[in-house]
Amino acid sequence: MFFQRKGSLIITNYPNLILIEQAGCELLFLPAYSPDLNKIEKFWSRLKHHLRKTIEEFDCLQDALDNAFRVLS
Fold first, then answer.
1. Which of 69, 27, 34, 32 minimizes the C-alpha distance to 48?
2. Which percentage of the chain shows pLDDT scores above 90?
3. Cα 15–28–41 angle (5° rounding)?
């Protein structure tokens, strides 16, 4: 099991590190901002790109968003 967390003091304090490792978890420390490792950032990027290309085809933003979510899901 992996536990992914940005440098939180609760996680990085030494006694907690020991407990987490004893539970069989491997800690993965991420940089403060790592959009390449965050799936939602990639999705938002695809969503914005799709909206920019297709927004003119729709009467309102809601219709464009409905279409984008349908196409990208």
1. 69
2. 41
3. 130
